[in-house]
Amino acid sequence: MFGPAGQPAQIPFFAFLSIKATILRLQPQQIIIHSYDLDTKNSYWKLLKPYVTLRIHDKNQLKGPDNRPLDDFALAHQADFLRLSILSKEGGIYFDTDVFPLRSFSHLLNSPRDVLMGHEGGNRYGLGNAIILARPRSEFVRLWIKTYDDNAFNPKNWNEHSILMPKRLQVRYPQLICPLSPAAFFWPTWAKKHLNYMFETLGPRPIPPVGVEGPAVQELRRNMTAYGGAMYANQLALHIRANHITEEDIIREDTRFNILLRDVVETPLP
Fold first, then answer.
1. Residues 211-229: pLDDT tens digits?
2. 116 — phi, psi (to 5°)?
3. How would you classify the pairing of strands 203-204 and 253-254?
4. Cα separation of 51 and 202, whole Å?
5. How far apart are CA 125 and CA 147, in angstroms?
6. Before 174, cis peptide (omega within 30)?
7. CA-CA distance, 240 to 258, in Å (whole number)?
């Protein structure tokens, strides 16, 4: 979690919602927030503090590809480097702060392969690095890190190493990684029509016993009941841009996103 240059990172509502959903739905043994500097006066941090570990990294002690200073690279690419370094040493489940788990991942932890990632896009052109499950010292992550130096990392090719490269490695070393369908983590996509689908108003939230839910809401609720809180059978999480959402939106307005996350808003932290 990183802030603008020279400023501490803030925890916005969408990131708080992501972390709270992780606490309630995955019940992990430990949650670590990685940052260069975090505003610990932030109201959402104060709510999360009892449930998470904050790990501050000294950027001056870290290096990017070809042993270059991290400040040579965009913040998004710094985050790419750092997540792989941490996963290589410690393993775990990595989430971007705009990932919203919908149900337990526990069945994935028994995979015979050391890394699990989800395909992005309907044509499965890449593997998304917003969610990575990895055991410590995995060979796949080692090879992935190595490509940053071996292929003369070019920051202008924005998703070359973060999305396209792991797909190439998966094709070359299929025994090292379990690739999941796009539906697991990355469907709907960030395409405009998919964002509209997730955030379109299905109607104002009815006030019982006066209001009656519309057919789209009823269908979504049936699917959530059938699939443990998800929209369809093999969906485990949403990776979606939701920085415009407020707590009041989720409570008052029926959209697909709001209904999927409403119980997280309404359920207190343990």
1. 678 889 999 999 999 999 9
2. -130, 135
3. antiparallel
4. 34
5. 18
6. no
7. 12
The overall pTM is greater than 0.70: yes
For residue 114, being part of any structural domain is answered with no
Tell me whether residue 85 is in a domain. Answer: no
* Nearest one of 124, 205, 127 to 160, comparing CA atoms: 127
Number of folded domains that form the chain: 1
Q: At a CB cut-off of 8 Å and minimum separation 6, what does 214 contact? A: 202, 203, 254
Tokens read off for 165: 């490269």
In a domain, residue 50? The reply is no
Q: Is 154 part of any domain?
A: no
Residue 254 sits at φ, ψ, to 5 deg, of -90, 100
pLDDT class for 138, splitting at 50, 70, 90?
A: very high
- The span from the CA of 124 to the CA of 163, in Å, is 10
Angstrom distance (rounded) from CA 65 to CA 80: 11
